[in-house]
């Protein structure tokens, strides 16, 4: 916004003052009114006021959105951007301003004509604004800059607050102001006008007073300002202070307010003004400098400075000097060494002419001298660190001291050594000897700035006959601190330093410091013993103050530490050489090749610095060979298959930017002259090498070893061969077992099915001829009994095959434990349902007891292997049934409890059997999660025949039974052995207890489980538990256990309806259609006949291809959904020619994915392959379930019905838990 231009003396055309006209029509237009207005000189006062001020028209501004000043004084117009803030065009600075001080609030306050004069004012934009209303229309607003807290330091500005206006200028009326204005110069009129305006407005607000050129000074003015004001400036080129220009006044005030040393050089004469801090720089020149010309103040330096001032004046630019060396008289001497940095800037007037120069000065003496001295100490440390013995140490120390020409005017270095030829009986000698010097000699090892033969520096002296400067060594030894000697105080003889000058300033040296070198570390022979002395001539132009003394102390510690390191190294070198020789002799004797390579810029490929005899032997090089690693004959002898890997490792070792280690092996020929590829039994060499880098990260050396590992490789090959042979033997054994099992199960299946058919047929006939001849009835009964014997024998043979397979898995260590999420109570309830028929047929009462501990632990779902748990329970319950069903009292009780602590005794207080071998904690594996460990305890109590102590000791052993029990009860003697193994695999223990014969038995065990997370953590395990859905072997385990527990007769009596032999086809089964995919014709016929007897329609396929062709004609095939053949189930063998069962079922599932088969085809595997891996393979391939041969028709029908029910519910879920446990 462009500020309006106001001329206070422009006369209007109507005879009235135009400025007066701006204040409204209330002002009369007569001549007298105009004269009255002009006599007020209000416009003049406002224009000359240094505070921003404006006048508002209340009648106009109240209707405007923003303020519209009718008048702005010069201070407001010249304050950049302030008018835009006051009119609301630019937001204010919020720093230090109350939140309530918005522009809207400021405008409301400024236009409020009803309020009286406000001494407190309004804080806005960092200024306090006051106002006054004239004639109820004109509002005068002015602002005063508030003192704000510094944003960075948190301190307040250093400006001095002046007293109240009425205490400085007690003016009350215009005549007083006019009278005072006549007495002072025009230059002071501004301050008078400001004061008058403040009095006229009646304000009592404080203002800032910092004009050191003002006529009136506060009582607390400091001495330097008084000196500045009291100087007779009329006698200087600047003239009286009241005649000074505004620019000079401003520059002088800036100078006096600067807290650091500064000067002003004003006018052509370069008249010098300085502030209060400047005398610290040149104390000898004060006070004669103030008002003096720089030419007169510094006559000796003007010749140097005059060209500098001339260049600056010609260019109009200032300059900056860093660390300028000056020699000033500051108390130590007329030429004390000092350093200053200063900036030299011109001061211009309004026309761009140079009026003077402002110099800001910073003393850097302490920093500059400290940096120089620290550089000396560092250089001495670096130089002496290269010394390997004392003879090397002194030249390096001399060179380090020689580099500092300022603080080391001269130097003498003496070593102390034993003098076995010098003896003295004098008292003084004895005293010196007690000091550690008398029996020793001093040898001058080096000097700086001291001419040869000088009196102060004898080349060699005895400890009891000290001369020259060495006479003071005894005193230095006694004090234990650096010894200061000065000519001035008489402690140093003047002739000792006669002719010795500062190497930098050429002044005579009159002070020295003696430093005794006494190592405090290292070997006892040198510890706390003086080994040398250093004499330093001090800087002739610096005082020996605390900083200088500190430098000497640090220098002493550096020299002492370096000397201790050299002495320690000197004494260790012979020992190290002996050790090195011993190591070399040892390396030459060991049967390992050792080499050391050194790398440098001159030899980037490396140079061998050591190789033992074994290295030459293994590499095949001559002992006089000097080849580099890249030229070694080993590269040509190496097997070509090893070359690339060895080259890669070696290159990586050389190029690594960090220390690294590499190991690699390669083959070389054993036969002389023959390529390694043709050598049937080559040498194997293992190389181990590591790199060492220097301080710059470059390769310094490589150290490595070569070992002949031929015998190790042979052993590895032998071991590998044996392992392969063992694996092959195991594979052949498994194949043999698989083939044997397969060949035994296949005919057993046909036998069982045929026997079942005979029994079924004979029972049907027996029912129809109940009234026939008794002889025929007897024949039928005997035939049925004979067929039942066949069934029992086949089942017994099957049990033996199953137990042998399980024991084989346990012995090979391949039995797996696979956890799933399950409810333990559900497992037990399903077990009881499974044996419900057995319990009923044998009139056995069964009970399930859940211990209180189970409820206290809030057990719901746990992670455990439910199939193995079920197998254990089946074996134990099977035994309980066998030994209880012939007793008068027949009861079986199952108890469940839980604990977070591993049990040591059973629920009844019996001790568990110790584990017969240490086993891995399977619950620590990742698939078990990290839930809390829970120990589940089970106890099965029966009222059976009981056991003796001897019988119990043999019970869990392989092929062991209670004596004669196999005669009455059957069995292989493996069931309880397998149960113990399964319990211990799950982290548990088992035991049996019995009070004796006919008093029942108590089988107890516990297993380890873990709590689960939320159900979403185990998506594949959410389904309800089923005895057919717990693991890949669960179906086999359940069916096998049922057969162990039940003979044929009881099975027929107690089996569920779905498992009983059907006497005739039912209407429900007439719509079922089964496809048998089997290559064995006998199995085809037997199974087909049984299914047909149950009302099934049966089709036959001899292999997988025929099965796929048949599926194309069914409703499962695309485009045949309405007119295709109905198919209920596919019963598929696994081992078939042309296309086996695994391949066929995979193809079926692929056809389902691509849409060629429009629905899920139910497939049950009918196979003699019963190992867990084989069952898993079938399920993973796509089988819905697996039925192992031999099987009973009721078992198969139960599986078919179960699968059909699952599919009808639309929740087909193959046994995924099996896959998880694979």
UniProtKB/TrEMBL annotation:
<dbReference type="InterPro" id="IPR005467">
    <property type="entry name" value="His_kinase_dom"/>
</dbReference>
<feature type="compositionally biased region" description="Basic and acidic residues">
    <location>
        <begin position="11"/>
        <end position="25"/>
    </location>
</feature>
<dbReference type="InterPro" id="IPR000014">
    <property type="entry name" value="PAS"/>
</dbReference>
<dbReference type="InterPro" id="IPR001789">
    <property type="entry name" value="Sig_transdc_resp-reg_receiver"/>
</dbReference>
<dbReference type="GO" id="GO:0000155">
    <property type="term" value="F:phosphorelay sensor kinase activity"/>
</dbReference>
<dbReference type="InterPro" id="IPR004358">
    <property type="entry name" value="Sig_transdc_His_kin-like_C"/>
</dbReference>
<dbReference type="InterPro" id="IPR003594">
    <property type="entry name" value="HATPase_dom"/>
</dbReference>
<dbReference type="Pfam" id="PF00072">
    <property type="entry name" value="Response_reg"/>
</dbReference>
<dbReference type="InterPro" id="IPR058846">
    <property type="entry name" value="PAS-like"/>
</dbReference>
<dbReference type="InterPro" id="IPR000700">
    <property type="entry name" value="PAS-assoc_C"/>
</dbReference>
<dbReference type="Pfam" id="PF02518">
    <property type="entry name" value="HATPase_c"/>
</dbReference>
<dbReference type="Pfam" id="PF00512">
    <property type="entry name" value="HisKA"/>
</dbReference>
<dbReference type="InterPro" id="IPR003661">
    <property type="entry name" value="HisK_dim/P_dom"/>
</dbReference>
<feature type="domain" description="PAC">
    <location>
        <begin position="662"/>
        <end position="721"/>
    </location>
</feature>
<dbReference type="InterPro" id="IPR011006">
    <property type="entry name" value="CheY-like_superfamily"/>
</dbReference>
<feature type="domain" description="Histidine kinase">
    <location>
        <begin position="739"/>
        <end position="1011"/>
    </location>
</feature>
<feature type="domain" description="Response regulatory">
    <location>
        <begin position="1073"/>
        <end position="1204"/>
    </location>
</feature>
<dbReference type="InterPro" id="IPR036097">
    <property type="entry name" value="HisK_dim/P_sf"/>
</dbReference>
<feature type="region of interest" description="Disordered">
    <location>
        <begin position="1"/>
        <end position="34"/>
    </location>
</feature>
<dbReference type="Pfam" id="PF26131">
    <property type="entry name" value="PAS-like"/>
</dbReference>
<protein>
    <recommendedName>
        <fullName>Histidine kinase</fullName>
    </recommendedName>
</protein>
<dbReference type="InterPro" id="IPR035965">
    <property type="entry name" value="PAS-like_dom_sf"/>
</dbReference>
<dbReference type="InterPro" id="IPR036890">
    <property type="entry name" value="HATPase_C_sf"/>
</dbReference>
<feature type="modified residue" description="4-aspartylphosphate">
    <location>
        <position position="1133"/>
    </location>
</feature>
<keyword id="KW-0597">Phosphoprotein</keyword>
<dbReference type="InterPro" id="IPR050956">
    <property type="entry name" value="2C_system_His_kinase"/>
</dbReference>
């Amino acid at each position: 916004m462009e500020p309006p231009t106001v001329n206070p003396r422009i006369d209007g055309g109507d005879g009235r003052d135009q400025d007066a006209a701006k204040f409204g029509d209330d002002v009369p237009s007569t001549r007298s009114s105009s004269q009255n207005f002009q006599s007020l000189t209000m416009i003049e006062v406002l224009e000359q006021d240094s505070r921003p001020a404006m006048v508002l028209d209340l009648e106009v501004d109240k209707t405007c959105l923003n303020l519209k000043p009718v008048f702005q004084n010069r201070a407001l117009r010249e304050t950049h951007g302030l008018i835009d803030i006051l009119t609301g065009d630019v937001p204010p600075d919020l720093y230090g301003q109350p939140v309530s001080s918005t522009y809207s609030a400021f405008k409301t306050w400024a236009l409020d004509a009803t309020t009286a004069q406000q001494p407190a004012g309004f804080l806005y934009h960092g200024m306090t604004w006051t106002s006054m209303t004239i004639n109820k229309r004109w509002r005068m607003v002015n602002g005063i800059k508030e003192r704000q807290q510094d944003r960075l330091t948190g301190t307040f500005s250093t400006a001095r607050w002046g007293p109240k206006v009425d205490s400085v200028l007690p003016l009350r009326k215009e005549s007083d102001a006019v009278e005072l204005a006549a007495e002072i110069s025009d230059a002071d009129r501004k301050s008078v006008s400001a004061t008058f305006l403040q009095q006229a407005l009646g304000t009592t607000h404080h203002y800032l007073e910092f004009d050191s050129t003002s006529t009136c000074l506060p009582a607390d003015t400091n001495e330097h300002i008084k000196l500045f004001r009291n100087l007779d400036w009329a006698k200087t080129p600047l003239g009286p202070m009241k005649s000074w220009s505004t620019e000079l006044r401003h520059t002088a005030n800036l100078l006096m307010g600067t807290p650091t040393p500064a000067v002003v050089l004003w006018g052509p004469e370069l008249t010098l003004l300085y502030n209060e801090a400047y005398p610290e720089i040149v104390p000898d020149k004060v006070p004669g400098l103030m008002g003096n010309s720089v030419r007169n103040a510094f006559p000796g330096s003007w010749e140097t400075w005059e060209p500098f001032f001339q260049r600056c004046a010609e260019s109009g630019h200032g300059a900056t000097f860093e660390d300028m060396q000056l020699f000033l008289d500051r108390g130590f001497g007329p030429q004390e060494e000092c350093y200053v940095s200063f900036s030299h800037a011109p001061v211009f007037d309004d026309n761009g002419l140079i009026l003077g120069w402002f110099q800001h000065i910073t003393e850097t003496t302490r920093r500059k001298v400290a940096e120089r001295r620290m550089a000396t100490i560092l250089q001495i440390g670096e130089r002496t660190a290269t010394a390997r013995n004392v003879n090397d140490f002194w030249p390096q120390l001399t060179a380090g001291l020689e580099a500092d020409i300022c603080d080391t005017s001269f130097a003498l270095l003496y070593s102390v050594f034993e003098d076995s030829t010098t003896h003295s009986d004098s008292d003084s000698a004895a005293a010196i000897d007690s000091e550690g010097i008398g029996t020793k000699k001093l040898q001058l090892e080096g000097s700086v700035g001291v001419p040869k033969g000088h009196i102060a520096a004898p080349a060699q002296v005895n400890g009891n006959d000290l001369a020259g400067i060495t006479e003071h060594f005894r005193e230095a030894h006694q004090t234990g601190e650096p010894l200061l000697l000065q000519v001035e105080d008489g402690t140093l003889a003047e002739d000792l330093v006669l002719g010795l000058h500062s190497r930098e300033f050429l002044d005579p040296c009159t002070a020295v410091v003696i430093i005794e070198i006494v190592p405090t570390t290292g070997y006892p022979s040198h510890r706390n013993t003086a080994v040398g002395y250093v004499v330093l001539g001090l800087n002739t132009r610096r005082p020996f103050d605390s900083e200088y003394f500190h430098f000497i102390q640090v220098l002493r510690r550096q020299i002492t530490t370096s000397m201790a390191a050299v002495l320690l190294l000197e004494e260790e070198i012979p020992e190290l050489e002996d050790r090195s020789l011993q190591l070399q002799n040892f390396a030459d004797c060991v049967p390992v090749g050792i080499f050391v390579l050194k790398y440098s810029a001159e030899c980037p490929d490396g140079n061998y610095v050591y190789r033992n005899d074994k290295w030459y032997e293994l590499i095949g090089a001559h002992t006089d060979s000097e080849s580099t690693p890249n030229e070694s004959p080993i590269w040509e002898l190496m097997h070509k298959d090893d070359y690339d890997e060895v080259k890669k490792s070696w290159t990586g070792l050389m190029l690594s930017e960090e220390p690294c280690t590499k190991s690699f092996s390669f083959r070389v020929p054993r036969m002389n002259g023959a390529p390694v590829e043709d050598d049937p039994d080559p040498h194997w060499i293992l190389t181990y090498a590591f790199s060492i880098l220097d301080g710059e990260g470059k390769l310094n050396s490589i150290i490595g070893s070569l070992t002949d590992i031929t015998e190790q490789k042979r052993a590895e090959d032998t071991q590998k061969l044996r392992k392969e042979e063992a694996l092959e033997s195991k594979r052949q054994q498994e194949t043999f077992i698989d083939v044997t099992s397969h060949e035994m199960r296949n005919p057993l299946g046909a036998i069982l099915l045929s026997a079942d058919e005979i029994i079924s047929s004979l029972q049907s006939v027996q029912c129809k001829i109940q009234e026939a001849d008794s002889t025929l009835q007897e024949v039928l009964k005997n035939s049925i009994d004979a067929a039942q014997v066949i069934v029992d024998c086949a089942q017994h043979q099957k049990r033996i095959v199953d137990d042998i397979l399980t024991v084989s898995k346990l012995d090979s260590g391949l039995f797996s434990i696979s956890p799933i999420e399950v409810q333990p109570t559900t497992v037990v309830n399903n077990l009881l349902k499974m044996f419900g028929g057995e319990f009923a047929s044998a009139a056995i009462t069964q009970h399930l007891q859940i211990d209180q501990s189970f409820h206290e632990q809030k057990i719901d779902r746990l992670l455990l292997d439910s199939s193995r748990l079920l197998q254990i329970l089946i074996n134990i319950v099977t035994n309980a049934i066998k030994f209880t069903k012939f007793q008068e009292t027949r009861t079986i009780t199952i108890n469940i409890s839980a604990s977070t602590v591993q049990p040591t005794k059973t629920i009844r207080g019996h001790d568990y059997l110790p584990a017969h071998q240490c086993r891995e904690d399977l619950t620590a594996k990742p698939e078990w999660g990290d839930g809390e460990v829970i120990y589940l305890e089970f106890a099965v109590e029966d009222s059976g025949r009981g056991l003796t102590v001897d019988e119990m000791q043999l019970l869990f052993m392989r092929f062991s039974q209670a004596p004669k029990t196999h005669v009455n009860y059957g069995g292989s003697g493996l069931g309880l052995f397998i149960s113990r193994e399964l319990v211990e695999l799950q982290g548990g223990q088992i035991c049996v207890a019995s009070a004796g014969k006919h008093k029942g038995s108590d089988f107890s065990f516990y297993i380890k489980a873990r709590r689960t997370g939320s159900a979403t953590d185990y998506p594949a395990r959410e389904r309800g538990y089923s005895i057919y859905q717990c693991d890949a072997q669960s179906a086999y385990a359940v069916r096998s256990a049922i057969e162990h527990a039940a003979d044929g007769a009881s099975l027929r009596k107690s089996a569920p309806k779905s498992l009983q032999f059907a006497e005739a086809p039912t209407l429900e089964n007439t719509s079922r259609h089964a496809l048998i995919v089997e290559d064995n014709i006998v199995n085809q016929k037997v199974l087909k006949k049984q299914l047909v007897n149950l009302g099934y329609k049966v089709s036959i396929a001899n292999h997988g291809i025929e099965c796929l062709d048949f599926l194309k004609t069914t409703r499962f095939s695309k485009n045949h959904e309405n007119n295709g053949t109905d198919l209920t189930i596919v019963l598929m063998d696994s081992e078939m020619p042309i296309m086996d069962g695994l391949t066929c079922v995979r193809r079926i599932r692929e056809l389902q994915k691509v849409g060629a088969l429009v629905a899920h085809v139910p497939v049950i595997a009918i196979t003699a392959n019963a190992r867990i891996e084989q069952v898993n393979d079938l399920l993973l391939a796509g089988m819905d379930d697996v039925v192992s041969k031999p099987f009973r028709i009721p078992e198969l029908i139960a599986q078919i019905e179960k699968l059909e029910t699952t599919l009808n519910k639309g929740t087909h879920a193959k046994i995924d838990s099996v896959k998880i446990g694979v």
